[in-house]
Write the structure tokens for this entry.
Amino acid sequence: MDIVSLTIAAVRDGLASKQFSAVELTQEALQFARQENAKTNAYLTFSGERALAAAQKVDAALAAGQPLGPLAGVPVGIKDVIVTRGVRTTCGSKLLEHFVPPYNATAVERLEAAGGIMIGKTNCDEFAMGSSTENSAYGPVRNPVALDRVPGGSSGGSAAVVAQGTAVVSLGSDTGGSIRQPASFCGCVGVTPTYGRVSRYGLVAFASSLDHIGPFARSAKDAATLLSVIAGRDERDATSAAHPVQDYEAAMALPVEGLKLGLPKEYFEGLNQETGDCIHAGLDALKKLGCQIVDVTMPHTKWAIDAYYIICTAEVSANLSRFDGVRFTTRSANSNTLLEMYRNSRGEGFGAEAKRRIMLGAYVLSHGYYDAYYLKAQRVRALIARDFAHAFETVDAIIAPVSPFPAFKLGEKVNDPLQMYLSDIYTITGSLAGIPCMSVPCGATAAGLPIGMQILTKHFAEDTLFRIAHQYELNRQ
Ligand code: GLN
């Protein structure tokens, strides 16, 4: 078996034809993952026992002639901000070094019920804050395509495990681009579904109004299969949507001829030349398939970063107050009073980026500044959502870059948070609007660094997203 290029369908065929058993595949995936991890640091924790037990169940079902779930036997990586019962969940933070959750996130529960095999928990920026995975307390992840470069972030580990082939698919989380940007940097598919499409129950909150769980895969088809397993209403998350989950497979079979694709000019300013060339090559391929390209304008794009970093830090300051040295977290050993214990536990446990955001968030919410910053940012958010709604009156989807540049070198931006924040310009708008968006590989630079093309559609139009991506994948050179 060629584990590096396995697809969900190939796993199913391999199991059905007895080419390998689920236990054999799991053992091989675990061994390969351990070996590759020495290079990339993409996994923080391996869940070998749980994986083998799940694989045995799949083999037993197969032997008994029972129907298999859509992810039967498929090795999966789970971002370490998604809780897993009995398996350590660190959120990339020193504070949660020893936290073993007593329950599973809904997405994990559904994935395992569908036969998916959790190989391990993937490395990420602390509490998903970052764009390079260098903010992890457990060391950065290296991009498997170029080991001296970052894999993107914050879901860098989840992108890397799919790109290096130690998992067939993985789960990440996206608040402002953390699925699409690492997918683009590592050369895989990454999908941020509509806000509320996937339950956030068990996703450790970063900025609750922006947080999404979504899939990484090596093809749009596999991403669609994974999303259809984890999507749908969940009573345990009041913001999860009751909207029916579409038949993505049926949608993907449809041609894209006649679809109108919007090209926002604001997204092509300040773009690295090679990135722009790849996106335009992608657009040419879509034109050949009969898509019509239309210019659209998104006039509020230039305020997106400012609005995002106000709203997300405000929510961070509230959400991260629960990590106080009393519950979940590692407690500072040398404190004499309760207040000292809070201060020392948080001071010793949080990394620099988390501290920066907690302070910024407390500031923008404080009396006297709330109206000037937080309220204004919320207004900008509404205007950005309106830009999209307006565009979708005339187009079926929007095509844009994911990141202004390809994967950068480790250490290149980590000491300049503003530079790091600016790299999120093309992904943040979709997150603020809560619309579905994805990154699809559309070529590489001369040095071989992958470039992703972003596709965005209106709320709950994941079917159109997958249709365009799949038809593009089938027809690109
Ligand atoms: N890079 C963005 C940030 O640092 C987005 C992170 C994310 O989507 N989780 O906030």
